[in-house]
Amino acid sequence: MATYPVVHKESGEQKEVVMSVTEWSQWCDDNPDWKRDWSDPSTCPMAAEVGDWGEINYVRQNLDGMMFFKKHKQLLDLE
Known about the structure:
flat; 2 helices; 3 strands
């Protein structure tokens, strides 16, 4: 079950509705005067987990390179 903060388009009333993802689609169809409330960043889905995929990939590649270097340092006569 997910919690969806919503706001009434005309009155500005705010509330939270708790339902499954499939129920959410139907609820939106049944309640056209309400919309998802994105004003509070803490209620955005996965706000803390969002990142730049290029940056994440760069870090992973460098970590893999460092692990390879540590593993094969003796073979490369770098000690």
